[in-house]
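Researcher: Let's try something more involved. This one mixes different molecule types, so please make sure each is placed in the same coordinate frame as the others.
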Amino acid sequence: AQSVSQHNHHVILSEAASLELGCNYSYGGTVNLFWYVQYPGQHLQLLLKYFSGDPLVKGIKGFEAEFIKSKFSFNLRKPSVQWSDTAEYFCAVLNYGGATNKLIFGTGTLLAVQP
Amino acid sequence: ETGVTQSPTHLIKTRGQQVTLRCSSQSGHNTVSWYQQALGQGPQFIFQYYREEENGRGNFPPRFSGLQFPNYSSELNVNALELDDSALYLCASSKDSGGKYFGPGTRLTVT
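Model: All components are placed in one shared frame. Result:
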């Protein structure tokens, strides 16, 4: 079965620091990968997604992620974080099972950005 | 905002009771899936509905059931509530196998 691992459970950064959140997945075939963000008190929002093509994917709010097939990784990056980036970040892989396409999520990384 | 709405926002029930949660999908989306997010965890897939039929199910017991209506809105029903059912329940809509857009969730507390 597919699985997603996020190794950083809590990350604390100062404003303007660079961010990289790790994500590894277990499936060796074709994968569709996502990063979602959950701001305090708000719903899950899609940050970016990878389906095919350029392995460097750019998303909203200055985030990007790089798909590295050989490492089974899809790390999220941002060159300079802001206080407003404080949120929980979830990596997910889309699992196709017949007619069903379900998202398998990692356990999330809680990011706190200090002003 | 994704256009996916859920009701109610919060709900408190006691063990053994039954609960119904509702979801209205984004316009043009024909697929609805439900996820359970326990505290400190990532969302876990419960089941998915496509054109009013369940077409996929995660590792949840039969007391978790659902419906999808002709307008693609959906309900999640949970019978015989247990304390461990306390969680945020998320609805996500998509068109066919496209990207999923989540609603704000219903926070269920079972006492």
